[in-house]
Amino acid sequence: MASLKSIKKRIVSVKNTRQITKAMKMVSAAKLRRAQENVVAARPYAQKMGEVLQSLAGNLEGDLHPLLEKRDAKKLLLIVVTSDRGLCGGFNSNLCKAGERYLKEQQGEFEQISVLTVGRKGYEFLKNRHTIYKNFSNIISKPNYQAAALLAQDVVEGYLAGEYDQVVMLYNAFRTVMSQDITFQQLLPIVPDDQASGDEAGVEYIYEPSVGDLLAEILPKNIEVQIFKAMLESVAGEHGARMTAMDSASKNANEMIGKLTLQYNRARQAAITTELMEIISGSESIKG
Amino acid sequence: MAEKMKLEIVTPYSKVLDQLVDEVTATGKLGEFTVLPGHAPFLTSLNIGELCYKVDGVAVSMALNWGYFEVQEDKIIVLVETAERSDEIDLERAKAALSRAEAALKKLNSEDMQFKVYEAALERALIRMQVAGKAARK
């Protein structure tokens, strides 16, 4: 049986771990709330943006905007949105594995596949397996619109320059605190919803400047908004996942402490019993 | 005809404003315009500029960054990247941004990639100061 001292030591160390996991859980819970608020706050913007885009696309005549045009897809860019920090259960690894599977499937259809990673974890996972086109770390922990806009501009420029013909974004969509949905979303070329072009609202808008000019401005903005939204969702998901992971870690630590304490008490009891036996037998022998 | 219009200003971070107003003036791509109740459906993009709305004779101005402006039957939706009310603007920060942008512009020539970025920054700072200045005078 392990010595009393070593058991005691282990109990202390598990207690320390529990303290950390508990604290991380609390922090994540607080951050999660804020992240969730951000997601909710960004929703009307994204939604309205989509509405305007649809009403514009429905009224578009003549040439398609290059971002709407469907090209002969040969080169694929996959944007993988992960977190910078770990300790959040399967949040990053599940996403990366899904990305990996997806890339394997697509390998036959595209001549060239490159990956753009947002967040350190995805970069570390994928850097040895695929060509990393670009990596954006350190923007995901505090998502702001400017960072998303820069990233989007980069993507759009590359697309217009013909470095890739299709852009797909992979991220963890926030569903509930406990679960995230791994989501593939095609960013470019932009696919307008079919239904919107069917039922034109019947309202004739005055456009200023022309529809084409407006569309040219709004389409890249739409990409920014989509990326921003994905980043927000991913952050909310990350905190949710971390909270859940830390919660179960704390529970495990509690269980562990219980087991160790039992072991410790048994060892102590055994030690006392042997000591008593020794004393009794010693006094017996003196008497005798 | 309704006497008031509903004005909604939305940014990626929040809904800044949701209010009934009498009159809205903004700077569009092709210049300044004013919308009164009963305006025809209208859609335009906004430059970096000022937006001013009036409620019961009281005018409030805001500094806007890029966005667009949609009028549908007595409802106005303004989607912008940032919107700051005149009393929220940090004048010191705007001044600092202005001098930074000016200094950067002097070093660059107009073909530089960065030129446009700083030009926009300059414009934003100027508008902020203009809007904040108006509030101070009142």
Q: Uncertain runs of chain B with pLDDT below 50, 5 residues or more?
A: none
Secondary-structure element string of chain B: EEEEEEEEEHH
User: What do we call the CATH homologous superfamily of the largest domain in chain A?
Assistant: ATP synthase, F1 complex, gamma subunit
Helix content range of chain A? 55-70%
Could you say what the CATH topology of the largest domain in chain A is called? Pyruvate Kinase, Chain: A, domain 1
In terms of DSSP E residues, the strand content of chain B is 35-45%
Gyration radius over CA of chain B:
16 Å
What are the main properties of this structure?
heterodimer; A: 288 residues; alpha/beta; Helix Hairpins; Pyruvate Kinase, Chain: A, domain 1; 6 helices; 6 strands; 61% helix; elongated; B: 138 residues; alpha+beta; ATP Synthase, domain 1; Single alpha-helices involved in coiled-coils or other helix-helix interfaces; nine-stranded mixed β-sheet; 2 helices; 9 strands; 30% helix
Structure explained in plain terms:
The complex is a heterodimer of chains A (288) and B (138). Chain A is built from six helices and six strands; from the N terminus they run αβαβαβαββαβα. Chain A has 288 residues and is of the alpha/beta class. Chain A folds into two domains: 4-26 and 248-282, ATP synthase, gamma subunit, helix hairpin domain (Helix Hairpins), CATH 1.10.287.80; 30-243, ATP synthase, F1 complex, gamma subunit (Pyruvate Kinase, Chain: A, domain 1, 3-Layer(aba) Sandwich). Chain A has a five-stranded mixed β-sheet with strand order 3-2-1-4-5, sandwiched between helices. In chain A, a hairpin with a 5-residue loop joins strand 4 and strand 5 (180-188). In chain A, helix 1 (4-58) runs antiparallel to helix 6 (211-287), helix 2 crosses helix 3 and helix 4 packs across helix 6. The radius of gyration of chain A is 29 Å and the shape is elongated. The two termini of chain A are 34 Å apart. The model of chain A is unreliable at 195-200 (pLDDT under 50). By secondary structure, chain B is α+β, with helices and mostly antiparallel strands. In chain B, helix 1 runs antiparallel to helix 2 (113-137). Chain B is globular and about 50 Å long. The termini of chain B are far apart. In chain B, strands 1, 2, 3, 4, 5, 6, 7, 8 and 9 form a nine-stranded mixed β-sheet that branches. Chain B contains two helices and nine strands, in the order βββββββββαα. Chain B has two domains: 5-86, Sandwich (ATP Synthase, domain 1), CATH 2.60.15; 90-137, Single alpha-helices involved in coiled-coils or other helix-helix interfaces (Up-down Bundle), CATH 1.20.5. Chain B is 30% helix and 43% strand. Chains A and B meet through helix 1, strand 6 and helix 6 of A and strand 5 and strand 7 of B. Strand 6 (206-208) of chain A pairs parallel with strand 5 (42-55) of chain B, so a sheet runs across the interface.
